[in-house]
Amino acid sequence: MSVRNAAATRQRILDHARRQFARHGYAAVTVKGVADAAGVSPNLITRYFGGKEGLFLAATQVEIPVSDSFDGDLPALGSRLAASIVQRWFGTSGDDPLLVLQRASGERREAAEALATFLDTNSLEPLYRYLRASGLDDSDARDRAAAIDAFVLGVSTRRRVLRSELGDPADLQAWLSATIQRLADG
Q1: Contact, 84 vs 73, CB < 8 A?
Q2: What residue ranges does this record give for the DNA-binding region (predicted)?
């Protein structure tokens, strides 16, 4: 097997693993099930990832460039964040590693820790720094960042993890935009 094929095979395994972990949670997913879906031997998953735990950790690596949402004035923050959120929710569906972490966080302490760390690093702290740089005092910036973070996580959990309908993307974006902006404005 060439290096190029090995990389493609590894990626195919990860794609199927993300989909299965997002749909079924950690406990219900098996190495054999992922291997079958990816069209590979379970031994290959062990070789590439060391087993189910390693596969899960690789499938939940989350990278979200948040800096674009913070480029601009405070009065348009809600609009920028809502556009980014809706694009992610509708653009990545079951393959979203963040969704995998959210769904697994109730059954895996490691997933809950990874999700909390991710949100602190990529949501709460950058949002706090942005609000401070926008002129809010420390206490207001922390409170508003925490409110926005909790709101978005709550909506995400309700609409994605509990598998409710996301609804119309344009309506969802408008509602998120207005609500996030109200939280940012205090």
Answers
A1: no
A2: 30-49
